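Colleagues,

For the teaching module next term, I've prepared a clean inverse folding example: a structure given as tokens, and then the sequence designed for it. I'd like students to try predicting residues themselves before seeing the answer, so please don't circulate the second half yet.
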């Protein structure tokens, strides 16, 4: 597809060059002389366009970033669904079958205390007391929403949070930052003058940084302290 995109302007330039040459020959047969300077100008301009077209194809990166892309409408739908699920959980109702958030990482933490103190200064924690939790352990799952930059899904590149349990204290640590390099490609003059583009460096930016939360299944009878929300 990329090769076809670059061949189109080259074919157009070659066609223009052919038309110019035919006009030269037709003008000479009719006794009309465009003059040496005009020929050099037109010929030089055509050569510059051809060189620019070939260079534009050569300087493309060897590996283009790939990933699922979303339209503006799709991004809005994703954000609305994430907000809906999150708000319901904040009100004590969580649907285990929800698909708005992806399971990023899970833990099974041995626990024998009667009180659990949760420290999570930068992320929401939902707690469910259950008789079905494994005896002597806390089940924890980190869910994350979509991370979309310039309409490209980069969720898989994000790092999960980390949990550390010391006695009865559970700390939720921020994830290690992830560096994502995004490139913007702009059609050169050799291409843009034959397209419908407006030129310049204007572009529409679409980005969303998904919500995230920790879901804890705690054995019944364990008292949970800290800034948490009980669900179900």
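(Answer key — instructors only)
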């Amino acid at each position: 597809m990329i090769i076809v995109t670059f061949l189109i302007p080259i074919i157009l330039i070659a066609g223009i060059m052919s038309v110019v040459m035919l006009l030269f020959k037709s003008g000479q047969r009719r006794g009309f002389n465009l003059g040496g300077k005009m020929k050099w100008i037109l010929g030089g301009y055509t050569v510059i366009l051809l060189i620019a077209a070939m260079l534009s194809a050569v300087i493309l990166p060897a590996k283009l970033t790939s990933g699922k892309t979303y339209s503006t409408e799709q991004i809005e739908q994703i954000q609305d669904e994430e907000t809906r699920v999150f708000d319901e959980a904040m009100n004590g109702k969580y649907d285990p079958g929800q698909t708005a958030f992806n399971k990023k990482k899970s833990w099974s933490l041995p626990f024998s205390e009667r009180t659990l103190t949760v420290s999570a200064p930068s992320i929401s924690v939902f707690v469910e007391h259950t008789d079905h939790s494994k005896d002597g352990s806390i089940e924890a799952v980190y869910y994350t929403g979509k991370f979309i930059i310039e309409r490209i899904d980069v969720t898989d590149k994000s790092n999960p949070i980390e949990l550390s349990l010391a006695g009865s204290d559970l700390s939720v640590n921020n994830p290690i930052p992830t560096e994502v390099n995004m490139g913007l490609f702009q059609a050169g003059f050799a291409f843009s003058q034959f397209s419908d583009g407006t030129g310049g460096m204007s572009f529409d930016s679409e980005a969303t940084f998904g919500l995230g939360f920790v879901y804890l299944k705690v054995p019944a009878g364990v008292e949970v302290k800290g800034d948490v929300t009980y669900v179900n």
